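Many introductory courses stop at the sequence. We go one step further.
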Amino acid sequence: MRFLLENNILIPEPLSDKSDAKRITDIESSYPQPLNPTFEYSTELQHLLYGKQLLLDEIPFSLENIHQHYLNGYLQYRRCISKTKDGYSCVRCGNADQKLFASFGCARCKQDCAYCRKCINMGRMSECSVLVSWTGPSPIFEIPEKPLVWEGTLSPGQQRASSELIKAVQTDDQLLIWAVCGAGKTEILFEGIGTALQTGKKVCLATPRTDVVIELAPRIKSAFPEIDVIALYGGSEDRNKTAPITLATTHQLLRFYKAFDMIIIDEVDAFPYSVEPMLQYAVNQAKKDISSTIYLTATPNQTWKKEIQAGKRKAVTIPARYHRHALPVPEFIWCGNWEKILKKKRLPGNVMAWVKNHLEIGKQAFLFVPRITYLENIVKILQTLDARIEGVHAEDPDRKDKVARYRSGEIPILVTTTILERGVTVPNIDVAVLGAEDKIFTESALVQISGRVGRSAKYPTGEILFFHYGRTREMIKAKKHIENMNKEAIQHGFID
């Protein structure tokens, strides 16, 4: 889209008969217009655009209608690509790596047009494309006096974290909640979300993974039944809606702009959020200038741990699960050169014995392995013991079906890569890691894997084994991490 500039007003080229139009990237300002309070704006457009930044091509309204809202101060046109002394930067994703920009001969602007390749799967951001954001009043939602109806009881550790969370919401502050796997993080959030809603704040709960968004949506809706809740992920039917509570993958936050008064980042240590600056940029862009940010993790990185210890980062620790039992501690078991044995289409004897024992006693188990290439051969070997044994990995088209069958008890042993280190809760299982010395098994991954065991109040204990061909620093750190949490929980009186 090209624009003409007349009397500090941007006019889209198709709505003008003049020919001296420029690309929005080449215009020095977005030229916002004063708000006309008598203008009858479209509430449908308001709900679509509030707190968002959408490409003009994504908006299902006529250009004339959109432009009337601009002229009356209810939305603004924004460039997609900024020019800097070092080249280009992308307004939506923050990309400034010149290797991730390309140019094409554009039929629309009749010039070579640079675009961002980093976030192109969200729609092409080019020099002549336009972002549109709402600048009018916020949609009004009716919030009941007591939006939270959940009547459960928090453990002492949960209550301590909940109280700190409420303070962070009231003071628009940041807080890290460091809670062990199975501590009941979702329930900790309820009172803080309720406090935000009661003061008219808009809340976002973001997580790196789609399956977590889908799993959380009914739990949040159940706790806040009179509040609109939308869930945003690739292919979501809620993408054109706005609501007081938004659940979203961190990728979806690229579409938001100064939208939220309270933003919660779940699994802040998880891939891809932990290693992708674009997603961290998206979070900062999606929250209002004055807002609260809550980080949730069971395994903070070393930098954050040091900041907590130095008092530079506000944090609250929950070292125990809600059911007041200690975390199961990993046991190291040497299994020899398992890769060499696997090449002979066998598995180490103690690994086979572990699997056979679980089949005999009828107790389900996860067997984590380092690579997809190993997984397929391991599954074939184990299926000679029981044909119901299956394997699952990130590229498996039947992944969701297999996990569902495992949850229902159809699959006795599920062999998996680290794809299932988080998010899957099965009440009564044991877990083993084959090749725990592999570099894929970091401290964080091994703590998360260990956290699959003993999560249920009915089955609070279980076995976690690290089968290895040599102990690594990460294995030792993971075990020490869990032991330290148990020690802290005992000191606070959080476990029996």
